[in-house]
Amino acid sequence: MSEILCPNCNSIVQLSDTYAQCESGHSFPKENGVYHLISESFGEILYPFLEGVENYQRIHNSPIPTELLPQTPYIGENTHQWNIRRKEWEWMLNNLPASPSTILNYGSWNGWLSNRLVDKGHSVTAISEFRDEHDGLGSNQHYTNIWTSLLMDTSQPLFAEASFDGIVLNYCFPYHDQRELLKHVHRILKPRGTLFVIGLSLPRDPDKVLASYQKIENYLRAEGKPIGIRDFTPFLTRADLELLNEFGFSIYPMNNNWIKSTINRVLRRGSKNIVAIKQL
Ligand SMILES: [Zn+2]
C-alpha cells in the first residue's frame, strides 16, 4: 500500500473500515465507500461545487445503468466513448507493470479502469474530485472488485514519494496545471515505474467544447454555486503535447498499429485520440 498523506498537516494517514485518520489526529469520513481527504478550506469550494454539478447531471445526463458498470469497457459496441476506452485498455494491457503492482488511477470517473486493473491482480488506488455513484468514486459500490477510493484535491496528490509502480492520468490531463501535475506524478512514482496518459483528444471544434462548459457554468452561477475549483482549458492543445514531449513521454495516435508519432505529424493528421507513455 502506498503512503497517503494528510491534507491538513502532511503526516501519514491510516485507513480504517469507516474513516481515515492522520498521525496528528485529523480525522476524515468515509461515505459510500469513499474516503474524503478534504481540508476545510478546499471543502468550502468543493462541496457546493459538487452539489451544483450533481444536480446539473441529474437534469441533463442519463447515466449508464449501474448494473452494467462491471462490464465496462465491453459495453456499447458501437459507441465512440466505449470503442476508444476498449482500445486504450488493450494498449495499456501490453504496457502495464508486472502484476501485482500498485497503480494509481488518476481521475477515476465511473470505476471502469480500476475494475479492470484489479481483475489483472493489481492493487489500485483511485483519486478524483467527484464522489457520485454514477460518474464519480462512489461508483465503486457497484463492482465486486475492491480498490481504495480517495476524494481529494487532485492538483495536490496526497501521497509520499515513490508510492506507485504505475500511474494512469485517466482523461484528466487538460484539467490541471499540467507542468505541476507532471512534477507531482514523477514524485509519487517509484523508480522504474510507468506513467500512462489516456483520453488525449484534439478537438475538431474547440468553441463547441467551450460552449458545453459555459452551459454548466451558467447553471452553477444561477444556482449560486462555485463555477469551478480551478482554471483550466477543457481540451488538449499543442502546448500540452509539447510539454509531454519535454517530460520524455512517447506519443501514440490511436490506430491499429500503435506507431510512435511526433507532435507535428499528430497535429497535421488531426489525430483525435492520442495516448502517451513514459517508462522510467
Ligand atoms: Zn493531519
Write up this protein.
There is one protein chain. By secondary structure, the protein is of the alpha/beta class. The protein has one domain (33-279): Rossmann fold. Helices cover 31% and strands 22% of the residues. It has 7 helices and 12 strands. Strands 1-2-3-4-5-8-7-6-9-10-12-11 form a 12-stranded mixed beta sheet, with helices on both faces. Strand 6 (102-106), helix 3 (112-119) and strand 7 form a beta-alpha-beta unit. The longest helix has 21 residues, at 40-60. The radius of gyration is 18 Å and the shape is globular. Bound molecules: zinc ion. Zinc ion is lined by residues 6, 8-9, 11, 22, 24, 26.
Write the layout of secondary structure elements.
Blueprint: E1 4-5, E2 12-15, E3 19-22, E4 27-31, E5 34-36, H1 40-60, H2 80-93, E6 102-106, H3 112-119, E7 123-128, E8 148-151, E9 164-170, H4 178-188, E10 189-200, H5 206-222, H6 238-246, E11 250-253, H7 263-269, E12 274-279
Parallel strand pairs: 5-8, 6-7, 6-9, 7-8, 9-10
Antiparallel strand pairs: 1-2, 2-3, 3-4, 4-5, 10-12, 11-12
The structure holds zinc ion (ZN).
- Provide the succession of SSEs: EEEEEHHEHEEEHEHHEHE
Radius of gyration: 18 Å
- Major sheet: order of its strands? 1-2-3-4-5-8-7-6-9-10-12-11
CATH superfamily: Vaccinia Virus protein VP39
User: N-to-C terminal Cα separation, in Å?
Assistant: 20 Å
Gist of the model:
By secondary structure, the chain is an alpha/beta fold. The protein contains seven helices and twelve strands. A twelve-stranded mixed sheet has the order 1-2-3-4-5-8-7-6-9-10-12-11, with helices on both faces.
